[in-house]
Design goal:
It is a single chain. The chain is α+β, with helices and mostly antiparallel strands and 342 residues long. 65% of the residues lie in helices and 13% in strands. The protein has two domains: 137 residues, no CATH class; 180 residues, 2-Layer Sandwich (Heat Shock Protein 90), CATH 3.30.565. It has a five-stranded mixed sheet with strand order 2-4-5-7-6, covered by helices on one side. A two-stranded antiparallel ribbon has the order 1-3. Strand 4 and strand 5 form a beta hairpin. Helix 1 runs antiparallel to helix 2, helix 2 packs antiparallel against helix 3 and helix 6 crosses helix 8. The protein starts with a helix and ends with a strand.
Length: 342
């Protein structure tokens, strides 16, 4: 069930219950009549409308992204304005229904009770609204940590896989006599990859530059292994450095391109990474020779494809997107769009 649907269910059911309670009270006080019932319904409708307007500005001004201490004053100012507007609507409603009594409705004690009770209702609504969202975000953070731990374990397992180590060391061994300098670089790159797997950034995000450093180490090592079978093309927008990405995300997609694409082709192929920045969105396109075989990819979970989707969903909601398709008969395209802010 979507959050919007949950919100409207709670809104309508909550204020409907408020209406029923008001009508019940007038019944118990033997003051119930058609006008009092209409008045109770109109009051609840205004509460529903006014709280929805308040919610609109809470979202528009991004109050949910601020710390509690930074929005307490703003919240109380909003509640105060809602309370005053509600009291004015209250008087107008009584006037329209013809049950306005000047001496009673404008009595200082009656005004004070009305304002305090209205303020209390708005305060309760606001507490419930913010509590729901903060609990939801806390729950999302827990889910993110679970997914993050899973992808870290998968990455560690793949990098420490005996075949990976065996292939990497064999490639380095072949270079020791032919090109000692290059073999030293390869050892450094291998140690860097293993270090990144063991000591991964504990934050939810890492800078794009740091992610690309890890990707370059991995690609350089794989180019030693595949020799002329693997070619790499990079087309990086300089503005990409101002973005942050989930750790290991780009590397996972590149590994997927090599494992499911290049390694299966006798003649090898090209892995290209292209980034562009448009309207505060980072677009990352990773292309590789080969073809996407859905059953095979789903069966192996595409080396972190599902984890990539889940992490983007948990971090950015609907603001980010991921897609992997056969771009043409010879090329697979993995595309990610990430906003500048969570």
């Amino acid at each position: 069930m979507s959050k919007a649907r949950i919100y409207w269910i709670l809104q309508i059911s909550g204020w409907s219950l408020f209406t029923a309670i008001n009508i019940l009270l007038t019944f118990l006080q033997n003051t119930i009549n058609l006008y009092s019932s209409i008045y109770a319904a109109m009051v609840s409708v205004w509460f529903l409308i006014s709280t929805h307007i308040f919610r609109y500005y809470i979202i528009k001004w991004e109050w949910l992204d601020l710390k509690i201490k930074d929005i307490v004053l703003k919240i109380f100012m909003g509640i105060f304005l809602l309370t005053i507007s509600n009291f004015i609507i209250h008087l107008l409603t009584l006037k329209v229904l013809g049950i306005f009594e000047l001496s009673y409705d404008l009595n200082p004690l009656n005004i004070g009770v009305n304002l305090l009770s209205t303020l209390f209702l708005y305060l309760i609504w606001t507490v419930f609204y913010f509590t729901y969202h903060y609990l939801e975000r806390y729950n999302t953070a827990l889910k993110y940590e679970a997914v993050k731990n899973e992808i870290e374990l998968n990455n560690l397992k793949s990098q420490l896989n005996p075949h990976f180590i065996f292939n990497a060391l064999n490639s380095i061994r072949a270079l020791v006599d032919e090109n000692p300098s290059k073999s030293k670089d390869a050892i450094t790159q291998l140690s860097s990859i293993l270090r990144n797997s063991l000591v991964i950034n504990k934050n939810k995000l890492t800078s794009f530059d740091e992610e690309m450093n890890a990707v370059n180490d991995y690609l350089n090592l794989e180019m030693i292994r595949f020799e002329e079978r693997l070619k790499v093309e990079l087309d990086i927008d300089p503005k990409s450095r101002y973005f942050s990405v989930p750790p290991l995300m780009v590397q996972t997609l590149v590994e997927n391109a090599i494992k499911h694409g290049i390694s299966r082709l006798k003649e090898g192929g090209i892995v290209s990474i292209q980034t562009r920045v448009h309207d505060s969105m980072l677009n990352i396109k990773i292309r590789n020779n080969g073809q996407l075989i859905t059953n095979r990819l789903n069966g192996s979970k595409g080396f972190g494809i599902e984890n990539t989707k889940q992490r983007l969903k948990l971090l950015y909601g609907n603001k980010a997107s991921f897609n992997i398709i056969n771009e043409d008969g010879k090329t697979v395209l993995s595309e990610v769009n990430i906003p500048q802010k969570i």
